[in-house]
Specification:
- Chain A: Pfam families: PTS-HPr.
- The complex is a heterodimer.
- Chain A is an alpha+beta fold.
- Helices cover 39% and strands 24% of the residues of chain A.
- Chain A contains three helices and four strands; from the N terminus they run βαββαβα.
- Chain A has a four-stranded antiparallel beta sheet, with helices on one face.
- The longest helix of chain A has 13 residues, at 16-28.
- The longest helix of chain B has 26 residues, at 38-63.
- The chains are: A alpha+beta, B alpha/beta.
């Protein structure tokens, strides 16, 4: 299980366009990927509704986990998406 | 013929078979169960969700631009794997597909609605997608609008959303009729921009039977059902007479005795230039620059802004081009202008100039781009700030404009505080521009987006006329850029109150030009005095028209 803990730099948080790009990227990977706030139950990174309902704002920390082939690569991509201010 | 009456918001006569859209989708009854074939029921639900998703993306692709991103995000929701597995779980437990879809969507709907703000608005999207899927399952409608037919149809709906109308054109739709909405609703603005007749706030509209022949008069607000051939011919003929009377009147706006009234267009960007010129706009009275900024993660570069501004400015040589700087705020949230705190009343929050003062760099960049675009142009470029309430705010804005090298700067008057103390604001600015829609909203404390409160948006409200009179007599040039100026009778009244320029959606310009040219300034002034002496909008309308005798000759 690979994991990244990252601060969301995008001004709109994990909403709107960053959320859409995040989900599109996660959905392309044929492995399980989750995202959550520390200490809370993680949700599927492929579900736009689950991610919106997390209500991640700018400056908050999220934990992204992936398991399987290419996990490291897709995590790098997802981290890059939320790191764009 | 039987008649329904609503508010005419886009003039002209249109007729055709009614196409009734999106009648409210009923909630599938709680406890409804399927026949027992779980696999078939799940497949039915998934197929319906996929069809809705495919339809949304296809319409987004066809529409392009901003609508494409909006609809692509909605398609993504319809394809959400977690949502789909929750629907399957409910079906596994025996729930019928329609009800399962309803319950699964509602779980997220309620969650987002509770968070509120931006996510609260996404909850409304969710309800729309949910209804599309349920309608698809129940065979209530096919999701989209009919393609171009042999004859254009009259689109009848409870209300229209951007997703419904992104692809409509004049050769497909003969007229719009909606049960809800007001003069500033999405339907009204779209219809005027398309030049298609429209009637809104029409009680009983959704009871019209599909395919019934309907005759719509967007000037009077009448909707005739099953008209005879003679009735259609008479209405079309009357409209033609009106149109030719309008077409005969050209040139700059003026009253019958030669008092000039600049007739200008409200535009959202370069793509509206053609319609403005077609209808004889002498310039631009309201250039809403926020369309350049919406739906982006960062502000557009100064170079990109400059190019757009230059395109508009160069299209009106010699004419005025009044540019409103970015009007953002809590109800039009921009990612790069995050609200500083939660705003329970967005219309009363940090919007317009208030948010500019929190992010002065955005304003400075826009003003620099405008100054460069104005260099060497023969158009008279004027810049104005929205939501100004005090002389101190006005002075701050004017100083910012001067620093950027812009010569003419003014303020919008859309808050009663500014209108009541216009005399205090006047010495510091070059001009006023009254935004009647917001001025009505703030004068009555009635949200302009709430259709049940549409009566407060009636621009004939005597109190609104009082506020216009105070602003127009404060000693600096004063224009009106709200939809009020698009009503030919009210346009005469506004001129009578001292307003020197009128800016509106371009298709209304010929009507207003003709109405002004048939009346003297004294008649306009008498109409204004008579209207202000009344206590209700209806009485004001009647009293003013008594002083404007040529309106009936023009079919207005």
């Amino acid at each position: 299980m690979a994991e990244r803990k990252v601060i969301v730099e995008s001004a709109v948080g994990l909403h709107a366009r960053p959320a859409a790009t995040f989900v599109q990227t996660a959905a392309k990977a044929p492995i399980d990927i989750t995202v959550g706030k520390p200490g809370r139950t993680p949700v599927s990174a492929k579900s736009i509704l689950s991610i919106l309902a997390l209500d991640v704002r700018n400056g908050e920390v999220i934990v992204i986990q992936a398991d399987g082939d290419g996990a490291e690569k897709v995590l790098d991509e997802l981290v890059a998406i939320v790191s764009v201010p | 013929m039987e008649r329904l009456t609503g508010t005419g918001v886009s003039p002209g006569v249109g007729h055709g078979p009614a196409y009734l859209m999106g009648a409210a989708v009923p909630e599938p009854p709680a406890g409804s169960r399927h026949g027992g074939d779980v696999v078939a029921e799940v497949a039915r639900a998934e197929a319906a969700m996929e069809r809705v998703a495919a339809d949304l993306s296809a319409r987004g692709e066809a529409a392009g631009g901003e609508a494409r991103d909006v609809l692509a995000a909605q398609a993504m929701i319809a394809r959400d794997p977690v949502l789909s597995s929750e629907v399957a779980d409910l079906i596994n437990a025996g729930t019928a597909a329609e009800r399962a879809v309803y319950e699964a969507f509602m779980r997220y709907h309620d969650m987002l609605a509770e968070i509120g703000g931006y996510l609260g608005e996404r909850a409304a999207d969710l309800a729309d997608i949910r209804d599309r899927v349920i309608a698809e399952l129940a065979g209530l409608r096919t999701g989209g609008l009919p393609k171009k037919g042999d004859t254009p149809y009259v689109l009848v709906a409870r209300d229209l959303a951007p997703a419904d109308t992104a692809l409509l054109t004049k050769d497909v739709v003969a007229a719009f009729v909606t049960e809800q909405g007001g003069p500033t609703s999405h339907t009204a603005i779209l219809a005027r921009a398309m030049g298609v007749p429209a009637v809104v706030a029409c009680a009983g509209a959704t009871a019209i039977v599909n395919q019934t022949l309907v005759l719509v008069d967007g000037a009077t607000g009448t909707v005739g059902l099953v008209p005879s051939e003679e009735e259609v011919a008479a209405a079309v003929e009357a409209a033609r007479t009106r149109d030719s009377a309008m077409a005969a009147v050209t040139g700059p706006g003026a009253t019958a005795d030669g008092r000039p009234v600049a007739l200008l267009a409200n535009i959202g960007g370069p793509r509206d230039i053609e319609t403005a010129l077609e209808h004889g706009a002498e310039g631009v009275g309201l250039y809403r620059t926020e369309f350049l900024f919406l739906d982006r993660d960062t502000a557009p570069s100064e170079e990109e802004q400059e190019a757009a501004y230059r395109e508009v400015i160069s299209a009106f040589p010699g004419g005025p081009v009044v540019v409103r700087v970015l009007d953002a705020g809590a109800d039009k949230p921009l990612g790069f202008l995050p609200p500083t705190e939660k705003e329970p009343n967005p219309a009363l929050g940090a919007r317009g100039i208030r948010i500019m003062r929190i992010f002065p760099d955005i304003l400075a960049g826009q003003l620099r781009a405008l100054a460069r675009a104005a260099e060497g142009a023969s158009a008279h470029v004027q810049v104005m700030a929205p939501m100004v309430a005090t002389p101190e705010e006005a002075a701050w804005f004017v100083a910012a404009c001067r620093a950027a090298g812009l010569r003419s700067s003014g303020v919008m008057v859309e808050v009663p505080a500014a209108a009541l103390r216009a005399a205090d604001l006047a010495p510091g600015v070059d001009f006023f521009s009254i935004g009647t829609n917001d001025l009505a909203q703030y004068a009555f404390g009635a949200d302009r987006e709430v259709s049940a409160l549409a009566g407060f948006q009636d621009p004939w409200q005597p109190v609104l006329l009082d506020l216009v009179a105070m602003t127009a007599s404060a000693g600096v040039p004063c224009g009106v850029c709200g939809e009020a100026g698009a009503d030919p009778a009210l346009a005469c009244v506004l001129v009578g109150l001292g307003v020197g320029s009128l800016s509106m959606a371009a298709p209304a310009l010929p009507w207003v030009r003709a109405a002004l040219l048939r009346h003297t300034f004294d008649q306009c002034r008498a109409a204004a005095v008579a209207a202000r002496a009344e206590t209700t909008p209806d009485a004001a309308r009647v009293a003013a028209r008594a002083h404007l005798p040529a309106l009936p000759d023009l079919g207005l």
